[in-house]
Amino acid sequence: MSNSERPDIPVLLDPPLGRPRLKRLRLAFILCGLSLLALVSTAFGMMMAVAADLPELENRSEFQRAQNSVLVDVRGQYLATLAEQGRIIVPTRDITLSMQHAIISIEDERFYQNDGVDLRGIGRALVQDILSGSAAQGGSTITQQFVKNATEAHNRRTLLEKIREAALAYHLTRQWSKQKILTEYLNSIYFGNGAYGIESAARTYFGNAPDHIGCGKTERRCASELQPHESALLAGMVASPSGYDPIVNPEAAKNRRNIVLAKMLEQGYLTQAEYERGVNEPLPSRDVISPPRAQAASKSSAYFATWVRQQVIERYGARDALLGGLRVQTTLDLGMQRRAEDAIKRWLGDPPAGPQAALVAINNSTGEVRAMVGGTDYDEVPFNLATQGQRQPGSAFKPFVLATALQRGISPNSTWVSKRQVIQVPNSTEKFTVNNYDDVYSGVSTLARATTFSDNAVYAQVGIKAGTKRVASTAEQMGIRTPVSSNYAITLGGLEQGVTPLDMAHAYQTFATGGLLVSGSLGSGRKGPVGIRRVTLRDNRDRVRDRNKRVRDRVLPKEVASTTTNILESVIKSGTARVAGLGKVRAWGKTGTTENYGDAWFVGATDKFTVAVWVGYPNELRPMNTEYRGKPVAGGTFPAQIWHDFMVSVIQSEQDRVKRQCARESEQREPDAKPSKKCLEAGLAVDPTAPVPETTTTPATTPDDGEADGEANGGTSRDAGEAQDRDGGTTAPPPPQQASPSEPEAPDAPPAAPAEPADPGGGVTPQP
User: Fold this and answer.
1) Which residues are 422's β-sheet partners?
2) Rounded distance between C-alpha atoms, residue 71 and residue 49, angstroms
3) By the 8 A CB rule, do 698 and 75 touch?
4) CA torsion sign, 501 to 471 to 608 to 637?
5) Backbone angles phi, psi at 520, to 5 degrees
6) Helix H or strand E segment including 545
7) What residues of the chain score a pLDDT lower than 50?
8) With b meaning 16 or more CB within 10 Å and e meaning fewer, what string describes 232-265?
């Protein structure tokens, strides 16, 4: 009998199911409601707090609160102010409609419809990002971008900051008109090349154009005269000022401009005829573009200051870089900079009546640029010959051929036939014809001797055997950042695209360091030379934002670099650059002269510095057939002489500094104390009371230069196969052979010195 059938046993019934579930569900609804209420209250409170804290975003007050950032040299001396003229504020009436339409079409096409935050745009950007697998499209409105610029939120891209930014944008649309937001935005954005704000940008890129001559200098505002294609170019640059720079990246800039024009057509801001006319307009030329000048210590140092300024902007954003109160310690030595300027003036004149020069000096162990001459007057010609002037290197390219050949097992003692060459280019009907200077051939020559006297006939054979693609790869790995072609002509330095003095100095520096490519965490571009050492705040120098850290990559075997520099010593001792000799100081280098004497080079080094010197006409490839006292300008003339004078003055200055230090050390040293190693090596410990000449170096504080001594410099032993000396003629070379892509240099004897000007630095004036 079951329990259910027994009347004396109570039956246990299941509890009712509905009531507890209702309680849990009711509790869940209550909790959700309370959470939603709390969330709404929190969001409302945040919005109200943001609204109450809405800052004054007027540009004028923002500019008044800002502090200009400054550059100082490696020893702490003032170099330049980054925000040289600040921002030029213009009202709405001075901004052409085409500029307003261009920026709206590419940055925020629903600008007049959204409330500061475009949910549709955010959704569209999210879909595009998911499809592309990267941040392909941004969803920020113009109002949000303006808030980000004005509140200095470039480097604080947290979720909370983005929410606050959106809230500020939402509230701003309720306090300001759309037109005011757009105007303030155009006055606050960065357009590259130091142009901060739309008026500064219009002056920089179009102020010198024929249609706008005189704007910005009178009551006429350049921003009020912009044509649709000009407005489209500027609007397109906002997303990436350096990536769409019309000089550095003209193809990308033109494509971007045409995209903006297409957007303007699509959105009804342009007619079809205006669009077609706009896409066919040329970009502003290098001669037209005139960036605002950095307030630099000298007209020449402004080129270096502008080069570094762009790096600071790319790292910290335009506002922080220009107006963030930064103190940027650069690598430039103003004392060395003045010596570089003096050496150039001594040979080419002040101002130069003929060709001009560019010079770059790099510290071998650190990769830091110590001097840079990119022109004579930045105000007149802001184009930087040292960093932007891509010219043919001629025979100065041959060390890369030599290094490649050595790596391929070709010995310096290997013999080659030196005669006129007519080489059939594989898979082509083209023939590569090679001539030596003055059609003089040695018959048989070693590779080392061919380097000493720049024998084209030999180098064409060596380069082809080593492999032109390998030669191009060697040059790029060593520091040449422009694309290097692999045609047969590169064996003699005939490239499809030229090289800059900065890259030539950087690549030769790799030889000096024993095959190590030296750059830094604050280096320029892709493993480029270093121009920035330390970034602090002007008001608090102990607060370091960034400090450069040296980076070294092995790109060439040490024995190859050592053999190359040993062979290149003979170029100075007995070859085409005898005027560059420094006596007992070890030096090596290579001359370069292009066809028709359009470019002349000397790139050389000591154990401490590598220096590249280029001489030519900056605006055109113009033959220099008579500029050297009626004779042609070859690499062994002005370039080698400028290099020599500069290095002599630098070495003399260093010796003077050591003398002063040893003299002070001797006065303070105890009688039985030993002199320092530096004083003993310099031979100054015996007679510290010897007269000390006046210094030409920068006085005052001398912070630790951070330069490491004893870096690999390619060794000092001579190679057994070094070329023997030969008599060097002094006659001027005849017109070059037309078929040769580069001409060798005449082995010049030291010429008579020009009239000596007074040494402006008060130091020792070296004799050419």
Assistant:
1) 433
2) 39
3) yes
4) negative
5) -165, 170
6) strand 544-547
7) 4, 44, 51-53, 57-65, 134-137, 154, 686-768
8) bbbbbbbeebeebbbbeebeebbebbbebbbbbb
CA separation for the pair 206, 195 (Å, rounded): 12
Q: Quickly list DSSP for 67-92.
A: B--EEE-TTS-EEEESSSS------G
pLDDT at residue number 727: 28
List pLDDT tens digits, range 455-478: 999 999 999 999 999 999 999 999
The C-alpha angle with vertex 178 and arms to 176 and 182, in degrees rounded to 5, equals 105
User: Between the CA of residue 649 and those of 200, 334, 343, 656, what are the distances in Å?
Assistant: 40, 13, 9, 10
Cα dihedral 274/275/279/284 (nearest 10): 50
Tell me how far apart the alpha carbons of residues 183 and 221 are, in angstroms, rounded to a whole number.
Answer: 14
Q: Which pLDDT does position 741 carry in this prediction? A: 36
pLDDT at 758: 31
Query: Which residues face 432 on adjacent strands?
Result: 423
Beta bridge partners of residue 538, listed in sequence order: none
541/291 Cα distance (integer angstroms): 29
| Structural contact between residues 636 and 576, judged by C-beta atoms closer than 8 angstroms | yes
Which residues are registered as beta bridge partners of 71?
80, 328
β partners of residue 445: 416
Strands 415-418 and 421-424: unpaired
Round to the nearest angstrom and report the end-to-end CA distance of the chain: 129
Contacts of residue 447, Cβ cutoff 8 Å, sequence gap at least 6: 402, 405, 410, 411, 412, 413, 414, 416, 458, 462, 721
Cβ-contact 569, 402 below 8 angstroms:
no
Distances 581 to 162, 333, 754 between C-alpha atoms, Å: 62, 24, 18
Per-residue pLDDT, 459: 94
Per-residue confidence (pLDDT) for residue 122, from 0 to 100: 61
Tokens representing 67 are 């502090």
Let me know how long the chain is: 768
Domains and CATH numbers, the chain: 85-279 (1.10.3810.10)
Cβ atoms of 335 and 653 closer than 8 Å: yes
Cα–Cα distance between 364 and 366 in angstroms, integer? 6
Q: Which of 233, 188, 191 is nearest to 209 (CA)?
A: 233
Residue 488 C-beta-side C-alpha neighbours within 13 Å:
21
Residue 272 near residue 280 (C-beta atoms within 8 A): no
Per-residue pLDDT, 58: 46
Strand residue runs (E) in 305-368:
326-330, 356-363
Among 323, 382, 327, 326, CA closest to 83: 323
How far, in Å, CA of 357 to CA of 199, rounded?
33
Fill in the amino acid letter for 67. Answer: Q
pTM confidence score: 0.71
Contact 53, 172 (CB under 8 A): no
Sign of the alpha-carbon dihedral angle for 115, 116, 122, 124: positive
Helix orientation angle between 272-279 and 250-266, rounded to the nearest 10 degrees: 180
Compute CA 110 distance to the chain's CA centroid, rounded to the nearest angstrom: 37
Category of 342 on φ-ψ map: left (φ > 0), alpha (ψ -120 to 50) or beta: alpha
Tell me what pLDDT residue 528 has.
94
pLDDT at 5 (0 to 100) = 52
